[in-house]
Amino acid sequence: MIRTVIANNAKLVSRRQFSASASVLAGKARFDWENPFRLDTLLTEEELAISESARQYCQERLYPRVLEGWRTEEFDKSMLREMGELGFLGPTIEGYGCAGTSTVAYGLIAREVERVDSGYRSAMSVQSSLVMLPIDTFGTVEQKERFLPKLATGELIGCFGLTEPNHGSDPSSMETVARPHPTKKGVYLLSGAKNWITNSPIADVFIIWAKLNGEIRGFIVERSQVEAGSGGLATPAIKNKTALRASITGMIQLDEVEVPAENLFPEIKGLKGPFTCLNSARYGISWGAIGALEEAVRLARNYSLERKQFGHPLAKYQLIQKKLAEALSDAAYGQLASLQVGRLKDNGQATPEMISTIKKLNVDNALKHSRKLMEVFGGNAASDEYHIARIAHNLFVVQTYEGQSDIHALILGRAITGESAFTY
Ligand code: TGC
Ligand code: FAD
């Protein structure tokens, strides 16, 4: 399926390139600030259709809910059901009710969701990349059949527990442990705490990374099983956040939680497990951040055309235009970089360092420019009704989770120099 998409894409690009060069010669090519490098010419018909339906859903159904969600910190779970109906959950997975799209299509969905809010994209990408992907990649046939179809529809909600109160950038030092139950055969006991976990207060399924005999292993913990059994599972929400307020974040406290052996990923051991999932999630974030930046440009442009000072719209002033031009340029470059890494990922040629590069650069640029574009709004930036401050505050967290930007610089630094800054 994915191979067919790539082959179709090659045909599509050559056809479009030909007609585009004909337009330039005829003097018909026009610059479109909303599509500066004609990204559409590099996408397959399927990717274009997915991107358009994602945009329509996000603008019509998500955008009207975002201000209320931000103010109340209430996450409306029905969103995940709606996304499931549209095939946006675990979209790259083949079978189990999933759409089987290209990696680029997954990125395009993330871009549209994050155009509305980074928190909504968080909820979606945790479900897709950090819950469904590990089950699909590391799970047994029984685990896949049991969990994937309901996660694909949003009937089950998942979360991913890697970060702990004392271990964020350095997950290899995690303290959460699993041990065989002393009396019940085929049962493990999980104890520890995970912190800052997207979706945890509302999750039905928890991917928990814990050390078993000193090695990191992945467990699928089910809330219904724990509630029915003996265990101590608590998932308190973290309230009064200054960012990502439209998504729900919490802790996971595990006190001797019983997990059956059939819920352990059988083969995968070590950090490779969680990081394989993060490769996909970080890739999606690289596109999501571009969506947020594009929205910041659109909002600032529109505001600058309406707001007059010194007798003219702000848009007439060079300093305002420079802010818009620099933000737009980095958004356009970011699209092309994510597109290329997505194509390489589908061909099996992408590396974690490439993903670190696009996660870091696209998010850093989106954060830098959205903060600059806040200035265009003057005092009105302080009102959430103008949305721009929400975008910038969210992007600070996006720069922090899934590997803070400096950590990605160190991953790249290690690849460039051969020296690891993480070991002494
Ligand atoms: P290191 O020696 O680099 O690696 C240990 C083992 O892991 C393998 N590995 C990878 N495998 C696949 N993909 C990757 N990207 C991989 N990176 C590493 C590596 O090959 C090795 O395997 P093996 O078999 O040789 O043992 O480990 P380190 O401890 O030196 O790592 C350091 C560092 C900084 C790279 C790493 O710890 C890191 O990336 N830290 C950042 C932590 C992070 O990203 N946390 C994310 C938590 S989840 C989250 O934030 C979700 S937010 C979701 C949302 O709401 O959208
Ligand atoms: P720390 O690791 O304490 O880092 C603090 C600062 O020190 C950073 O700037 C970092 O770059 C810097 N630093 C650390 N080590 C070094 C070094 N060696 N050299 C130079 N600088 C260094 N985690 C999950 O597992 N699942 C989730 O679903 C999830 N969702 C989240 C949702 C939200 C809203 C937030 C805020 C976080 C979420 N996280 C999640 C956690 C996130 O992944 C961590 O916050 C992130 O990995 C950073 O860890 P930390 O906060 O402990 O910061």
TrEMBL record:
Its cofactor is FAD. Residues 271-416 form the Acyl-CoA dehydrogenase/oxidase C-terminal domain. Keywords: FAD, Flavoprotein, Mitochondrion, Oxidoreductase, Transit peptide. Its main location: mitochondrion. It comes from the Eukaryota. GO terms for molecular function: fatty-acyl-CoA binding; flavin adenine dinucleotide binding; glutaryl-CoA dehydrogenase activity. It is found in: Mitochondrion matrix. Pfam families: Acyl-CoA_dh_1 (PF00441), Acyl-CoA_dh_M (PF02770), Acyl-CoA_dh_N (PF02771). GO terms for cellular component: mitochondrial inner membrane; mitochondrial matrix. GO terms for biological process: fatty acid beta-oxidation using acyl-CoA dehydrogenase; fatty-acyl-CoA biosynthetic process. Residues 44-155 form the Acyl-CoA dehydrogenase/oxidase N-terminal domain. Residues 159-257 form the Acyl-CoA oxidase/dehydrogenase middle domain. InterPro entries: Acyl-CoA_Oxase/DH_mid-dom (IPR006091), Acyl-CoA_Oxase/DH_mid-dom_sf (IPR046373), AcylCo_DH-like_C (IPR036250), AcylCo_DH/oxidase_C (IPR009075), AcylCoA_DH/ox_N (IPR013786), AcylCoA_DH/ox_N_sf (IPR037069), AcylCoA_DH/oxidase_NM_dom_sf (IPR009100), Glutaryl-CoA_DH_mitochondrial (IPR052033). Belongs to the acyl-CoA dehydrogenase family. PANTHER family: GLUTARYL-COA DEHYDROGENASE, MITOCHONDRIAL. This is Glutaryl-CoA dehydrogenase, mitochondrial. It comes from Geotrichum candidum (Oospora lactis).
